[in-house]
Amino acid sequence: MAATAAATIGFPQAYLEGKEVKETSSLVTELCRHFYTQGWVSGTGGSITMKVHDDSIPKPDQLIIMSPSGVQKERMQPEDMYILSPNGSIISAPSPKPYPNKPPKCTDCAPLFMKNRRLSLGKRLRKLGYKAYEMRNAGAVIHSHGMESCLVTMLNPQAKEFRITHMEMIKGIQGHGYYDELVVPIIENTAYENELTDSLTKAIEAYPKATAVLVRNHGVYIWGDSWIHAKTQAECYHYLFDAAIKLHQLGLDAAKPDHGPIQRHVHSQNHISTKLSVKSRVKDSQNQTEPPRRCIVLDIEGTTTPITFVTDVLFPYARENVGKHLNLTYDTAETQEDIKLLRSQVEDDLRQGLAGAVPIPHADEGKDKVIAAVVSNVEAMIKADRKITALKELQGHIWRTGFECNELKSVVFEDVAEALEKWHSSGIKVYIYSSGSRLAQRLLFGNTNYGDLRKYLSGFFDTTIGNKKENKSYKEITETLGVEDPSEILFVTDVYQEATAAKAAGLEAIISIRPGNASLPENHGFKTVTSFSQI
């Protein structure tokens, strides 16, 4: 039967019995034993599935090894594994073991065969793991029943998301840094398999940055592009879930940058007034009605910070120190990656005939020639005020040295620090979206003339999420923040085209009028402010 199934999908029986499949099966059993000691797969619960890595086979076409359902995970052997086709159908099933062992089960793994059938919850959830392969091109999926992943969904029975920020282990989650807010969707248990499948699919679609989905009162699904990545992230997620539970027990809020006290609902007049000013529609100074806001996203240059600080301080510092920085750090992986990004950008610039672009030679032509070419290109890019990731990454690394050596001190307008503190205290999450790299943004707000303001910020976005003048970038931010109604996000910028793009994506947009900012078109149609105190 196994030979027939294998031949049908193009995998000979010899391949099923070959080195790659055996090694992957052995790895799954090893991980199950380890996860059992962590409490993730006890009581026969939980599951691990993994692609059979083979360089000769495209990843979407690779076989999948899956641990069986309802068996003692810590006692499994490699021959106890199921072998699945790339579309989830069973190619090879393990032989039953004598009493008192239960027969292995994996009938829920075929997405089409099991459609609309009633299954036990554990079976349904293991079947759902296939969605991560289908929608995220995962290399491995871990389904954990860890106590932390269950309890964390009970802290707030109405919450549709788990949120945490400013924790070191967030750095272990793909696409996240220490200062970022990690958002994990929470889906509800349902009575029918197809209903749960739909909710998981919607969660994966709605949270493109997520690499996990929590199932309330049950567990968590975690995936990565390889088994190592999935395992690492699983360890980080469980640590963060446990940290959030412990912070909650102490009355502290894991979603606040300073992990301050949880805001309780106290039915006093003062509390009601405060809540009304934040969540209800309020009147501004011109007696106009403003919408409720969950998040505020701020531009930097010309909004929080004078344009002159960027043009007269930061840019010249980067231009004057780029050669020195490259010479000192040339052999580091970080600088080599910076040069690689710049070389790729310059190649595009040369194809388009952009002025100032000169070819960057490869390393075998010598360090001095490479550095000279990089310096020439960087000077031309800064002069043209290019808003490109390759330049911004290198600038951020140069500025980091300047801030660490106290050669740089960033400047924000006098109303900024007070407004950030006010919004933070009111429960409004504040984010930064700038063409500068996330590193540069963190450096700027961590070293201001008003001290370290990062404790008031929930995250940072740069051009890796998209061009600031394109509305799809703001749609991506909305999805990343997990905000269902984009009008609950306020974007403040000094650039008309950015405000227009944000508005087209459904966000509320306000234009900042600061000294030195460019003039606006007549009848631009946006509300303007000269100080954050007017917001």
From TrEMBL:
Mg(2+) binds at residues 299, 301, 494. InterPro entries: Aldolase_II/adducin_N, Aldolase_II/adducin_N_sf, Enolase-ppase_E1, HAD-like_sf, HAD-SF_hydro_IA, HAD_sf, MethylthioRu-1-P_deHdtase_MtnB, MtnB_viridiplantae. The keyword Lyase applies. Pathway: Amino-acid biosynthesis; L-methionine biosynthesis via salvage pathway; L-methionine from S-methyl-5-thio-alpha-D-ribose 1-phosphate: step 2/6; Amino-acid biosynthesis; L-methionine biosynthesis via salvage pathway; L-methionine from S-methyl-5-thio-alpha-D-ribose 1-phosphate: step 4/6; Amino-acid biosynthesis; L-methionine biosynthesis via salvage pathway; L-methionine from S-methyl-5-thio-alpha-D-ribose 1-phosphate: step 3/6. Binds 1 Mg(2+) ion per subunit. GO terms for biological process: L-methionine salvage from methylthioadenosine. PANTHER family: ENOLASE-PHOSPHATASE E1. GO terms for cellular component: cytoplasm. In the N-terminal section; belongs to the aldolase class II family. MtnB subfamily. GO terms for molecular function: acireductone synthase activity; magnesium ion binding; methylthioribulose 1-phosphate dehydratase activity; zinc ion binding. The lineage of its organism: Eukaryota, Viridiplantae, Streptophyta, Embryophyta, Tracheophyta. Its EC number is 4.2.1.109, 3.1.3.77. It comes from Brassica oleracea var. oleracea. This is Probable bifunctional methylthioribulose-1-phosphate dehydratase/enolase-phosphatase E1. Residues 1-253 are annotated as: Methylthioribulose-1-phosphate dehydratase. Zn(2+) binds at residues 143, 145, 218. NCBIfam families: enolase-ppase (TIGR01691), HAD-SF-IA-v1 (TIGR01549), salvage_mtnB (TIGR03328). Residues 26-245 form the Class II aldolase/adducin N-terminal domain. HAMAP family: Salvage_MtnB_euk (MF_03116), Salvage_MtnBC (MF_03118), Salvage_MtnC (MF_01681).
